């Protein structure tokens, strides 16, 4: 039992350290690189306003357009790495924010419903559950071949249940041999175990894959 607890503590420490680094990188992308690019964009716009030759103006406009696109991509990447809403507003608003980004990126509609009274969750558990949902949605985009996902948040007095069903092609769990996919599923289960919760995965060929998360509150 002591060995198991020790392993859990090490895993928790590693995951927490990784999340702190991800948070730092996300902030640096948004407030560092993003702001620097915005300053360059402003400078180019000033130069364009003073340029006389049409071909130079056109060239500068192309550069401005490219920088604007890059700024947007950095903002999206920053949100994907660590949504600000996760810390300030909580799990459900952060999930809604991520789903908008997910749908615009992959064209997969996620129907999210929440029942019961939303409760406050410690930040570490917030991050863990968010990451598991994020991994589940990423796997759906890569493997499920679907355009529709159903996600439910069910708030009880002492437990949060989250169900995710993808209506995709499904797979045989015991025969699944894609290393990246299977390691991702194992990581989801490990993260939930470290919160004191559970992650259950079931799948049927032609009917899709269902994921059920439970988190003690």
List descriptors.
alpha+beta, 18% strand, single chain, 217 residues, 63% helix, five-stranded mixed sheet, 2 domains, Heat Shock Protein 90, 6 helices, elongated
Describe the fold and architecture.
- This protein has 217 residues and is an alpha+beta fold.
- The chain folds into two domains: 80 residues; 132 residues, Histidine kinase-like ATPase, C-terminal domain (Heat Shock Protein 90, 2-Layer Sandwich), CATH 3.30.565.
- Helices cover 63% and strands 18% of the residues.
- It is built from six helices and five strands.
- Helix 1 runs antiparallel to helix 2 and helix 4 runs parallel beside helix 5.
- The longest helix is centred in the N-terminal third of the chain and has 49 residues.
- The two termini are 24 Å apart.
Largest sheet: 5 strands, mixed
How are the strands ordered across the major sheet?
Answer: 1-2-3-5-4
Structural class: alpha+beta
Number of structurally distinct domains = 2
CATH C-level name of the largest domain: Alpha Beta
Shape: elongated
* Cα-atom radius of gyration: 21 Å
First-residue to last-residue Cα separation: 24 Å
Beta-strand percentage range: 15-25%
CATH superfamily of the largest domain: Histidine kinase-like ATPase, C-terminal domain
Helix content: 55-70%
- In sequence order, what are the helices and strands, one letter per element? HHHHEHEEHEE
Care to give the gist of this entry?
This protein has 217 residues and is α+β, with helices and mostly antiparallel strands.
Outline the fold blueprint.
Layout (H helix, E strand, L loop, with lengths): L1 H49 L3 H28 L2 H5 L2 H16 L2 E7 L7 H22 L3 E8 L3 E7 L13 H16 L3 E7 L3 E9 L1
Parallel strand pairs: 1-2
Antiparallel strand pairs: 2-3, 3-5, 4-5
């Amino acid at each position: 039992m002591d060995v198991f607890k020790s392993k859990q503590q090490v895993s928790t420490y590693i995951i927490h350290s990784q999340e702190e680094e991800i948070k730092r990188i996300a902030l640096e992308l948004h407030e560092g690189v993003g702001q620097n690019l915005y300053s360059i964009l402003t400078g180019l716009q000033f130069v364009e306003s003073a340029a006389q030759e049409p071909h130079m103006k056109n060239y500068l406009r192309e550069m401005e357009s490219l920088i604007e696109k890059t700024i947007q991509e950095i903002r999206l990447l920053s949100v994907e790495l660590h949504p600000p809403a996760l810390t300030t507003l909580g799990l459900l608003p952060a999930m809604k924010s991520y789903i908008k980004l997910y749908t615009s990126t992959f064209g997969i509609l996620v129907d999210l419903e929440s029942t019961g009274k939303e409760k406050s969750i410690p930040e570490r558990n917030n991050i863990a559950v968010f990451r598991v949902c994020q991994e589940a949605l990423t796997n759906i985009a890569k493997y499920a071949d679907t355009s529709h996902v159903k996600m439910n948040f069910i708030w009880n007095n002492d437990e949060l249940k989250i169900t995710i069903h993808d209506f995709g092609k499904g797979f045989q769990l015991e025969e699944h041999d894609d290393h990246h996919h299977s390691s991702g599923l194992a990581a989801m289960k490990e993260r939930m175990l470290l919160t004191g919760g559970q992650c259950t995965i079931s799948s049927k060929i032609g009917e899709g894959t269902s994921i059920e998360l439970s988190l003690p509150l």
